[in-house]
């Protein structure tokens, strides 16, 4: 069977159901970005459960959790929330961009140390538990890639080859995607197993097309966040890319990583904005219903399916 590795163990990819590929239910980024720490602090197990219950009640099946260790990854909390709700949660190993959390001495590490850490999280368990990660995260700064970030990208590709999981990258304001992909190609990693996130913060159709030409997937995770451009911009970009034949390489989610994004913390719009508002808008704007369905079902299932290790 095709499988994906969740915090509760392996499941058949067909059992993923409706899937959002880059979200957050528990974070604790103390020491990073002091101006936004409180808003980024998602530290309540009961609220994490409430988030997932709302998600499931609206048809959610799987949530890909994008919180790395240095941003407060909580393996025990993710398992608890998944068990309490029945929502599949796929955790990550790896690191976000250097600005938002890497070990201070990572630049001095041998790359194989980074690889081994990632492989252990996937094959043995995270943070001293037997709860395993199911994908690898990397990330880059705004308009440049630090040496530490490049090391993590290369390590992610090597660890993914050893374990069969997929990789996706945080980008800062949607920049450096092509440069990331050049490193991925230099590592001779299968770009169909690599995705670039936050691309709709840099709404450059030519740039998105050039990334897709490498064979990668793109994650549009800004719907509902008008401060990062109105949804009309995302609709227009998606129309062009679907018309050009890239529908199978596009995934959608909200990237709700702040208290101010979540109804359970007294704000909004919450995880269900995509399903309740954005997807119906796509259909109203003329998108084929099967294409919209695939954004949330077939595409993430194919992307996160584990492959045979090399």
Automatic annotation (TrEMBL):
<feature type="binding site">
    <location>
        <position position="24"/>
    </location>
    <ligand>
        <name>Zn(2+) 1</name>
    </ligand>
</feature>
<comment type="similarity">
    <text>Belongs to the metallo-dependent hydrolases superfamily. Phosphotriesterase family.</text>
</comment>
<keyword id="KW-0479">Metal-binding</keyword>
<feature type="binding site" description="via carbamate group">
    <location>
        <position position="137"/>
    </location>
    <ligand>
        <name>Zn(2+) 2</name>
    </ligand>
</feature>
<feature type="binding site" description="via carbamate group">
    <location>
        <position position="137"/>
    </location>
    <ligand>
        <name>Zn(2+) 1</name>
    </ligand>
</feature>
<feature type="modified residue" description="N6-carboxylysine">
    <location>
        <position position="137"/>
    </location>
</feature>
<dbReference type="GO" id="GO:0008270">
    <property type="term" value="F:zinc ion binding"/>
</dbReference>
<dbReference type="InterPro" id="IPR032466">
    <property type="entry name" value="Metal_Hydrolase"/>
</dbReference>
<feature type="binding site">
    <location>
        <position position="170"/>
    </location>
    <ligand>
        <name>Zn(2+) 2</name>
    </ligand>
</feature>
<keyword id="KW-0378">Hydrolase</keyword>
<feature type="binding site">
    <location>
        <position position="255"/>
    </location>
    <ligand>
        <name>Zn(2+) 1</name>
    </ligand>
</feature>
<feature type="binding site">
    <location>
        <position position="198"/>
    </location>
    <ligand>
        <name>Zn(2+) 2</name>
    </ligand>
</feature>
<protein>
    <submittedName>
        <fullName>Phosphotriesterase-related protein</fullName>
    </submittedName>
</protein>
<dbReference type="Pfam" id="PF02126">
    <property type="entry name" value="PTE"/>
</dbReference>
<dbReference type="InterPro" id="IPR001559">
    <property type="entry name" value="Phosphotriesterase"/>
</dbReference>
<dbReference type="GO" id="GO:0016787">
    <property type="term" value="F:hydrolase activity"/>
</dbReference>
<feature type="binding site">
    <location>
        <position position="22"/>
    </location>
    <ligand>
        <name>Zn(2+) 1</name>
    </ligand>
</feature>
């Amino acid at each position: 069977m095709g499988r994906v590795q969740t915090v509760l163990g392996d499941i058949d990819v067909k059992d993923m159901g409706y899937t959002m590929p880059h979200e957050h239910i528990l974070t604790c980024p103390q020491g990073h970005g002091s101006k936004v720490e409180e808003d980024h602090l998602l530290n309540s197990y009961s609220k994490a459960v409430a988030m997932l219950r709302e998600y499931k009640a609206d048809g959610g099946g799987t949530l890909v959790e994008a919180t790395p260790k240095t941003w407060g990854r909580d393996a025990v909390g993710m398992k608890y929330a998944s068990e309490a709700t029945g929502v599949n949660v796929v955790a990550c190993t790896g690191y976000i961009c250097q600005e938002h959390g890497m070990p201070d001495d990572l630049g001095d590490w041998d790359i194989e140390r980074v690889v081994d850490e990632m492989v252990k999280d996937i094959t043995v368990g995270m943070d001293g538990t037997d709860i395993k990660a199911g994908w690898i995260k990397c990330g880059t700064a705004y308009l440049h890639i630090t040496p530490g970030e490049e090391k993590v990208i290369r390590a992610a590709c090597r660890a993914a080859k050893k374990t069969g999981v997929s990789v996706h990258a945080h980008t800062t304001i949607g920049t450096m995607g092509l440069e990331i992909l050049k490193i991925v190609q230099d590592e001779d990693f299968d770009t169909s197993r690599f995705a670039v996130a936050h691309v709709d913060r840099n709404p450059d159709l030519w740039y998105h097309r050039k990334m897709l030409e490498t064979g990668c997937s793109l994650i549009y995770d800004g719907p509902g966040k008008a401060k990062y451009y109105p949804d009309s911009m995302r609709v227009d970009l998606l129309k062009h890319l679907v018309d050009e034949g890239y529908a199978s390489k596009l995934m959608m989610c909200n990237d709700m990583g702040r208290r101010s994004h979540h109804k359970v913390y007294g704000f909004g719009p919450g995880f269900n904005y995509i399903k309740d508002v954005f997807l119906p808008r796509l259909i109203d704007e003329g998108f084929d219903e099967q294409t919209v369905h695939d954004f949330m079902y077939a595409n993430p299932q194919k992307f996160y399916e584990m492959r045979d290790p090399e």
